Amino acid sequence: MNVRRSAAALAAVGVLAAAAPATAAGASPAPSPSAKLTLPAGLYGTADPTYDGVWRQSLTLVAQRTLGYRPAAPAVDWLVGQQCANGAFAAFRAAPDRACDSKVVVDTNSTAAAVQALKATGGHDDAVGRAVAWLKSVQNTDGGWGFAPGGASDTNSTSVVIGALAATGADPAKTTRAGRSPYDLLAAMSVPCKQSGGGGLAFQPDKKGALAANADATAAGVLGALGKGFVTTAGKAPGSSACVTGAHLTPAQIADNAAANLASAVAKTGHLTSALPGATDQPDYGNTADTVVALAAAGRTEQASRSYTWLEHNATRWAEQSGPAAYAQLILAAHAVGAQPGDFGGTSLVRSLDAQGPAPSMDAAGHASKSPEKSTKSDGGSPFGLWWFVGVCLVAGIGVGFLLSGRKKQQP
């Protein structure tokens, strides 16, 4: 959710990309837009939106609604304008006044993120309905979704689509193709308990069909197995920490196994370490934030809170360099553990996010939320933007990843 996909998972779909729902956490800031590109007034962030525009915009709008804000009309209108006539969304359409053609690369991740954002903001049921219909039309026969229509299913894409279905009140278990639901795909990606990384989830099987646990996919898969989207609060504590083995794992068992795997991964330091090539003991801020959300949703609130505290002490600079998706991701992590995003290690995540684009307003309808601002401390802002996904569709689409969410990580 997040900037949740890291560059390695992108490699798994055949595209190298810089930056993580997600982009790779801790990576260099996203590139500034080219001189020929004029950024729309309603778009959050000033970095080139070619690969993450819809993702970062969607995370921003969801975070604002979670805080009790009513997003600015131009921001919502920009997102709506990215939709194609068939209901799908592309990462960025520089000329939304023109009809989508074969050159416009749509993807499941952007579409599912937009569904969650537009459902949260309200007033766009037609756009949401068409987007969900398109997602259902491109479901694979294994029950899951790939980043690009027709592409091999992966845990991240399947999980973000589950979140979109759940946001609209649809039952993911009843969303099937060839008799299989998205939960069947997640079960197929669950690493057997006795293997290295047991309980975790793979992004996709490797070329030999073997599964390797991937922290990014595991965090996404926890939320997917629980039938949750970007926004979640603390769930019920698991009854057992033991990894459950079985030929037919239930969604709850998939989530418990995966959450135990994540808890173990962050138990020592409180954070994940980047799996990007060349990274040496480099913290993975984005996927750590996703892990906080996943652990909280799975009822592992103590470990989630410890990792959130680590983020408070260490992630401010990362968010400043990365932009709106990173700020939104941290806000959603704060919401998951019941923390106050108005004071994040001395920085207001709320004001920092709002400074990235058109200012929202407080929701007169009384959207359920804690007061979004209590801190008067300084915020960090940045002209940079973070991309959760960069993927197949750049070369053939856009990446996978929350995280992204912007949400990927490479299979070990």
UniProtKB/TrEMBL annotation:
PROSITE patterns: TAT (PS51318). Residues 348-377 are annotated as: Disordered. Keywords: Membrane, Signal, Transmembrane, Transmembrane helix. The keyword Signal applies. Residues 1-24 form the signal peptide. The chain crosses the membrane at residues 384-404. It comes from the Bacteria. This is Squalene cyclase C-terminal domain-containing protein. It comes from Streptomyces monashensis.
